[in-house]
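SUBJECT: protein chain
CONTENTS: sequence, structure tokens:
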Amino acid sequence: MPCVIKRSVFLVMWTFSLSAGTDVVGAQNTGKDLQPIIDVHHHAMDNDNGFSMGPTCPNTSKFTASDPKTDAGQQFGWVTEECTPKLYPAAKGQYMKDVLAEMERLNVTAVVFGDPAGVKRWKDAAPNRVIPGTGFEKGDDRIPLDELRKDFTSGGMKVMGEIGLQYGGISPSDPAYDKYFALAEELDIPVAIHMGTGGSGRANLTMPKFRGSVGNPLLLEELLARHPKLRVQIMHAGYPMIDNLLTLLQANSHVYVDIAGLIWSYPIKEVNRYIERIVDAGFEDRIMFGTDQFMWPKLMSYSISIIQNADYLTPEQKRDILYNNAARFLRLDVTTK
């Protein structure tokens, strides 16, 4: 898999302040020798495909209750507030260009998920920055197994994901989908499964089939028992089910987590507390950086800053989370310090 490697001892950073009063360091590259970063959770989308959102305040301070009579169009219960910084969507037609420029500036290689055609567009635009991935879901349909096999054996795909069974209220251990995980195990392809967070109000505002209960990391146990060589990436680190997550990690040493989405969409104190629990429990070598990148080009820089400014992490732990753990999971052959 492609990965551009650049080394440096120093990282130049700048500081901004959230509305909640928490100082956060923004990732900033002023030279070409920045240490590499791997984002294991990135989406091959743009703002010209009918999906768009306005400016947003990352690490919202709270989630508001909604009224089914008056708030039918509300998005995920995010509180309306003023903040610094505020993340802005790209101009029409500029999203991929802007994000790839950020990836180059910050020396990021990303695992990009989506349909093969969309992922190929990103791969063609930045062949040394994109590790291509695709799942077995297409809307409410499932990709034929022989077609998916071709995607991974001759189509260049390297990771199976994002697997969003939770959005349909389906357990990842449901036998109906076992053939896809069997294929991943056979081909030694890592799988990335959405588990945990879905956004405040997801089930009653936008996705009525979504079930928080099937984001329980322990629901992976039967799948892992059937496929003991399967490499699994728990997206969003199974947030907020920390005790169940730690139970699973203790029993299954080849399971990793990403902190994408979680890292910027919940109150900053809660984000740091959750990551610190995983580290304190002894699983620092299973945590992988990710953004859940979409819509806002500066989201990547902002998300990196959360790890860079985490005072509970040592410099070595920060490098492991930002690069080394993902390099090991993806079987890249380079480690950085």
